[in-house]
């Protein structure tokens, strides 16, 4: 499987505040997103996710390291193959859903007729067929997210980047969003999701990278990461608490930690463990 995004030793710092204090937003991160996979970019607030996404999109330049998209440095050619749903998109509210998506289709270089057909099609895909001609000002949050996804996929991009796609969605909306992501995957597209909704990420993603303070704390195939816990198990008929405590104490003597949890871990547990380890708490 070839890489759609290949990030190597990427560094980005900002000068912040009046004194220009240096903030290491990305401190040499490396990961790759393979063609056709759903990839989750995770991390607590301030970990560097948005900075990484902006660099992939060509909206920001790194200070050093490399970011290749479709094997090339970012250019207008590579950008035309990317669809992007920003977190909390701020669309022109006086446009109808159709006008909005046609606008983005035209920006991607389509002619008027082609843009209208593509816009109607992508609005139908996201479930807004009956709201084509409604003003965005009358849309609920969930409908705005759908319209945002429609603009992100209208030009049939190969790579779709979704920043907090579940923001403001109710459980039904989240389920619909998940189905749309799986549909994109089924069409052979690569999807990069940046999210704090770990249950959804666990359900959808093939691979993840967890960022912490500008570094990669964990990265790889999700199933492999989650089954990576070492555990010791034994069978005993109705063990008493006393017995269990004595086993635990004897194990401790030999430097063995008995785990009562069995693998695979949930992504949320894995995430918390990795972040706690990194933060030394
Ligand atoms: N324009 C900027 N100027 C100065 N510092 C910035 C700027 N943008 C981001 N930072 C800092 O860089 C670090 C990484 O920020 P970034 O927005 O990439 O994190 P994030 O993982 O996307 O966080 P969140 O989950 O809150 O969106 C943070 O310490 C942030 O304060």
TrEMBL record:
Instruction: List residues of the ABC transporter domain.
Output: 5-238
Q: Which organism is it from?
A: Intestinicryptomonas porci
Arranged from A to Z, the UniProt key words for this protein are: ATP-binding, Nucleotide-binding, Transport
Supply the PROSITE patterns for this chain: ABC_TRANSPORTER_1, ABC_TRANSPORTER_2
Question: What is this protein called in UniProt?
Answer: ABC transporter ATP-binding protein
Looking up Gene3D superfamilies in the UniProt record yields: P-loop containing nucleotide triphosphate hydrolases
Q: Which Pfam family is one of this chain's hits? A: ABC_tran
Q: Which GO terms describe its molecular function?
A: ATP binding
